Amino acid sequence: MIIDNDVVDALADELLGPHDKSAPPAAWGSAVREYLVGAPRLDQWQTPLLTLDRGRLDANRDLMAEWTTTAGVALAPHGKTTMAPQLWREQLVAGSWGITLATAWQAQLARTFGVGRIMLANTVLDPAGLAWVAAESARDDDFEIYTWADGVATVELMDKILRETAAGPRVRVLVELGGPHGRTGARTRAQARAVAAAIGASERLSLAGVAGYEGALAHDRRPEGVAAVRSYLRELAALHTELLTAGAYSGPAVVTAGGSAYPELVVEELAGLADPEGVRGAPTTVVLRSGAYIVHDDGFYAGISPLAAPAREPGLRSAMHGWARVVSRPEPELALLDGGKRDFPLDEGLPVPQLVVGGTLPPNAVVTALNDQHTFLRLPGAGAADLPVGSIVRLGLSHPCTAFDKWRLIPVIDSVDAPDPRVVDLIRTYF
């Protein structure tokens, strides 16, 4: 089972209420499925609001599924981007190998929805979380979960915790390789090999591959950043080859890397390691963990992803947008909108005004700051008077990870470009 359809479908039976930010009060008390039968319109919702575009979600999902298949790598999208089981199901049905998550709690949530294969892209040292990993693996023989380790002391502590819990199957662990000034991960191949040896010597762990995250080493497309990413990925490939040659793997192996910024570099440097039949030793699957692609954005990923439109056609397009209403015009060249940092992301760039619903966006309009519940929209020069109080502004957003975590329920519209968008679905998140 890749996911439990009955549990996901049951989300449509949940009742709407004031706990669902910006949902129309007229819908409170209605089940989601009942509400959608009425073909509701976007203009019935309150502001501020975050929406998703159905057509763009579908196109982004299918583009990545086809691209990874053609590249010969598996895809385990990072589920922490959306924490939305409905979207996880769409990705799994489209052919994803599994779902990546970042914490034991996120993995536990995914298991309540029946996700059958999880890449837990982190080290689990919390005793309760690690005990759960072991217990869940013992409970369901078909469930696969992988976790990471980057130090010998880490491996020893994991083994100690598991030896103090109930007996069960060995926990699959990937050696995490890092890079200079990066995030976690052993800093050299020699250190990583020592971690692998410690896993091999443990009572409750099994060495299941190598892992890393190249996105911590660069943040743009400058030559030096791309070179740093390539150099790191080659080190990761060399580590896997060394472990493979030494016969360190007791079973099939996974080689995994990849965010949404440099997926083509991961493919170019690692795809050749894929060996599903084990011709070169342990059967090996190369897994890409990009997460933001299904939503994409109008900021950071639009500027750095090699799969983004319009540079690539067909390409990824932002499926998320913010909507906020002008509530104050205290100065001639300033408008205050009713959404702020509690509603929209700003860690990878401020929102960008795109249009005024039923009106004209003044030229040179720019967002300069966000408070908790207000956006500062500056309107320099001519046209500022054309944005009256009550106007609704559509905003382009940057970084889906810090957009989704602000919303428990997100309406999906048929098209962000439609003159009167229809709400066709509601996506529940778990943060």
From TrEMBL:
Cited SMART domains: D-ser_dehydrat
Transmembrane segments: none
D-serine dehydratase-like domain ranges (all copies): 319-414
Taxonomic lineage: Bacteria, Bacillati, Actinomycetota, Actinomycetes, Mycobacteriales
Species of the source: Nocardia fluminea
A family per Pfam: D-ser_dehydrat
The name this protein goes by in its record: D-serine deaminase-like pyridoxal phosphate-dependent protein
